[in-house]
Amino acid sequence: MTTSFSPAFAKMDAAYETRQIKKLFHGPESNADTEATAALTEKARQTLADAIAFACMPVTHALHIQPKCR
Questions:
Q1: φ/ψ bin of 52: left (φ > 0), alpha (ψ from -120 to 50), beta (otherwise)
Q2: What pLDDT is stored for residue 23 in this prediction?
Q3: Tell me, what's the pLDDT at 50?
Q4: Residue 48: which of 12, 9, 7, 23 has the closest Cα?
Q5: Are 55 and 15 within 8 A, CB to CB?
Q6: d(CA 52, CA 46)
Q7: Residues 5-45: pLDDT tens digits?
Q8: What is the 3-class SS of 6-47, one letter each residue?
Q9: What are the CA-CA distances from residue 63 to residues 4, 16, 18, 43 (Å)?
Q10: Main-chain dihedrals φ then ψ at residue 28, nearest 5 degrees
Q11: What is the predicted pLDDT for the residue at 42?
């Protein structure tokens, strides 16, 4: 389903779903040493947090309420 929120949520998802989550935490690096992988990726976390903050924006929308006829 597409709504007026869809583009904003897509930007947030794109900013969050990064190499850190998709490849490192779910890959052989993390399986071998989770704590070292987390420590290493925390160094890059601020860049990711900035991308998420940049993608976060107000969404203009309107609600239309209609009675449901039986």
A1: alpha
A2: 74
A3: 80
A4: 12
A5: yes
A6: 10
A7: 788 778 777 766 666 777 777 788 778 888 888 888 777 77
A8: HHHHHHHHHHHCCHHHHHHHCCHHHHHCHHHHHHHHHCCHHH
A9: 10, 28, 33, 42
A10: -65, -30
A11: 77
Those residues with Cβ within 8 angstroms of residue 63's Cβ, 6 or more apart along the chain or in another chain = none
Paired tokens of 10: 């897509």
For tokens 């969050």, name the residue. 16
The per-residue pLDDT for 46 is 74
pTM: 0.38
Q: What distances in angstroms separate CA 10 from CA 19, 33, 45, 69, one per listed residue? A: 17, 31, 20, 34
Q: Per-domain residue ranges for the chain?
A: 6-55
Asked if 25 contacts 37 with a C-beta cutoff of 8 angstroms, the reply is yes
Return the residue matching tokens 């947090």: 49
